[in-house]
Write a structure and sequence with these properties.
Two copies of one chain form a homodimer. Chain A has a five-stranded mixed beta sheet with strand order 4-3-5-6-7. A two-stranded antiparallel ribbon of chain A has the order 1-2. In chain A, strands 8-9 form a two-stranded antiparallel ribbon. In chain A, β5 and β6 form a beta hairpin. Chain A has about 200 residues and is of the alpha+beta class. In chain A, α2 packs across α3. Chain A has two domains: about 140 residues, 2-Layer Sandwich (60s Ribosomal Protein L30, Chain: A), CATH 3.30.1330.130; about 35 residues, Wheat Germ Agglutinin (Isolectin 2), domain 1, CATH 3.30.60. The first copy, chain A, is built from seven helices and ten strands. At the A-B interface, α2, α3, β5, β6 and β7 of A face α2, α3, β5, β6 and β7 of B. β10 of chain A pairs antiparallel with β7 of chain B.
Chain lengths: ~200, ~200
């Protein structure tokens, strides 16, 4: 597999780099290194699986979900991106029919050749020790050289069941999926808020 | 509290309605009713809390996270949006300093006055029984009339711990947060994929 940057030169996810950085800034708030390397990961995974419609699985809540949501059709709300809170900097795109796909991850072994990326990824230095510009420059220089990629077959246990029935919770008075139990999960688990007296 | 649409008439989340629908289509894939009503919910919650920087909590994986990600600065990857898989069509925006905020939900009782919305929300008819255009028209007619809103104080147990240390997992060889245990969560819980023979 070709580990160099895409043949289209300075394009990433089909866009000029400047546009990638701009879209990340608009959505995520700033050009976070994790989202920028995420764009490189998405670019490689998409190239690997071809132009088929793909579902996504992401193995961390940090940064990477935003790269998937910006640069693939998969979002959290449309159900095509599943999120595992595993704190691994990895993502998989797979054909939802054949379940064949590609897993790409930021490879700690390979980052050793890029000290700025290595120190940032493994938190060997305080967050502000490496200027953002330096880190982004190194990421865009290294691109796929710090990643690994494997062909995988996704197992299907993450498929989300269709919502078939709606009930009104006797506790909260709100609509919920009755498969959750007798009450909605807010009542079962306790809320995350208290009511403010008016 | 004013339950009518925003005083700015046909603006929603500070944009013309057509622009809202276009942004939803680009991100989510189509103008899903759940994301459109989500935009109305976000609009009300933001008006309620004012212009302060707010964190978001959303109580379902379906549709609503995309409205928050499009129409607030909160995204899954930047950590400002927390997602509860509770299947309740509700969201909260709150000031991250004072924890005071506003919870808005689609109110099954109030939707009774809008049969198309009611039947869609409570799944009383098959998904294709109500044409999308009809449903969107009713949502944009009803707007806040089908919602409820309460002032809340968010309790803080959802705050995400800062990642302080990174280890390399002896099982997978990948970087992970050692607070997860001796191995990364992928090794602990079993993966979601098998490797394809090359």
């Amino acid at each position: 597999m070709d580990k160099k940057s895409s043949a289209s030169g300075d394009l990433l996810c089909g866009r000029p780099i400047e546009r990638v950085l701009e879209e990340i800034t608009n959505f995520h708030g700033f050009p976070a290194p994790g989202v920028v390397i995420g764009a490189v990961m998405v670019d490689w995974a998409r190239e690997h699986i071809g132009t088929i419609e793909a579902d996504a699985i992401v193995e961390t809540l940090r940064c990477l979900p935003d790269a998937l949501q910006l640069f693939t059709p998969c979002t959290l709300g449309n159900g095509w991106m599943r999120v595992l809170d595993w704190d691994r900097f990895a993502l998989t795109l797979y054909d939802r029919t054949t379940r064949r796909g590609c897993r790409v991850w930021l490879d700690a072994g390979k980052t050793a050749a890029y000290p700025a990326i290595h120190d940032w990824f493994l938190k060997r230095v305080p967050k502000d020790a490496i200027p953002l510009e330096t880190l982004l420059g190194k990421i865009l220089e290294a691109r796929r050289a710090v990643l690994s990629c494997r062909s995988v077959i996704a197992t299907d246990f993450l498929r989300r069941p269709k919502k078939e029935r709606i009930a009104i919770c006797a506790g909260s008075g709100e609509a919920f999926d009755p498969r959750a139990g007798d009450c909605c999960k807010g009542c079962l688990r306790g809320g995350y808020f208290t009511l403010e007296s008016a």
